[in-house]
Design brief:
The chain is an alpha/beta fold and 310 residues long. 25% of the residues lie in helices and 26% in strands. The structure holds NADP nicotinamide-adenine-dinucleotide phosphate. The site of NADP nicotinamide-adenine-dinucleotide phosphate has 19 residues, from α5.
Amino acid sequence: MKDTQVEKLVIIGSGPAGLTAAIYTARGNLNPLVVAGREAGGQLMLTTDVDDFPGFPEGIGGPELMMRMRQQAERFDTRFVAEDVLSVDFRQKPFTIKTETQEIKADSVIIATGASAMWLGLSSEQRLRGKGVSACAVCDALFFKGKNVIVVGGGDAAMREAQHLSKHCKSVTLVHRRDSLRAQPALQDLVKSKPNVKFIWDSIVEEVLGEEKVTGVKLKNVKTSEMTTLDIEGVFVAIGHKPNTGFLKGQLELDEKGYIIVRDETQTSVQGVFFAGDVADKRYKQAVTAAGMGTKAALDVEEYLENLKG
Ligand code: NAP
C-alpha cells in the first residue's frame, strides 16, 4: 500500500461484528480493509459449540462459524491485515490507524474490537496464570484430563466452561458468589445434568494456592464468613468481560468501564467513526446481536460516505 492511499473504510476487529460489517460494506463497493488482529476471529474462536446462531440447526463450532464469515467477506474482496492496532488518531481527517508495520489513512472507521475476559484481581491468581489458572477451557481443558478443577462465575460463560471441562476432568466444581445462577436455563440444566459437576454457592475465591502450580483454593462463604480449602489443580475464571478499547483512550468518549459511549445508533463521539458489537454492548453480547450491529454500522457508514461526496 502507498503511504498516500486513503481507504474508504477501515474495520478494526474480526469477530461477528467486524466481519458482518465487512460483508455488507464490501457488497456496497466500499472495498473495506479489516485490521483483523493477531488473534483474529474474536471470542467465538474460544467457543466449542454454538447452538444459538440461526441457520445452524445442528449447532456449529465457534472457529468454523468465524471461518465461514471470513470466507463470505473474502468472496466480496474484503482485504485483511493480520496485525493489532497500536494507536489511532481521530483528531484530524483522514483518520490514522497505526498497526505494528503500517500507518493506514481512512475516511471512515468501524470499531469492532469486542471484549476480553476479566480476572478476579488476586495476586495469587496472576502469579499462577498459565500454571493452573486459565480463562479458556476450550484452550486448556486437555491439560486437566482426569483432574479436579473449579470454575468461578454463574453466567453463560461459566456454564460453557463447566460443560466443556466435564468432558475431560474428573470433577468440576462451580463456585458462585450467590445462590442462584445468572445463566440461561437451558445451559443451567445442561450443566446440572453432568454427574461430575458440583456447585458451591455463596462463595468467593480468597486465594489460589500453590507455588509452581495450582494445588488448591481458599474459599470464603460470603454469608457465614467461613473459610474452607479445596484441593484442586485448575481454576477457570469466567466472570465476564471488559471492552478492548485501551487504544482509543483520548480519541473517543468512553465510559468509566471503557465501553464506547454511543452518540446515535452506531455513531461514536467522532463523526465518521462508528462501532459495532461488544465494544459498546453491556447488555446483549451475543454473536447474533454483534452481527446485527455490524450490519447497522455498515449501513450508517455507507450513508456517511455518500453524504461526504455531497
Ligand atoms: P456475565 O453474564 O456477566 O456473568 C458473569 C458471572 O460472573 C456472574 O454470574 C457474576 O456474578 C460473576 N462475577 C462477576 N464478577 C465476579 C467476581 N469478581 N467474583 C466472582 N464472580 C463474579 O458474563 P458471561 O458469562 O461472560 O457472559 C457474557 C455474555 O456472553 C452474556 O450476555 C452471555 O449470554 C453471553 N454468552 C453466551 C454464551 C452462549 O452459549 N449462549 C456463552 C458465553 C457467553 P453475579 O451473577 O452475582 O453477578
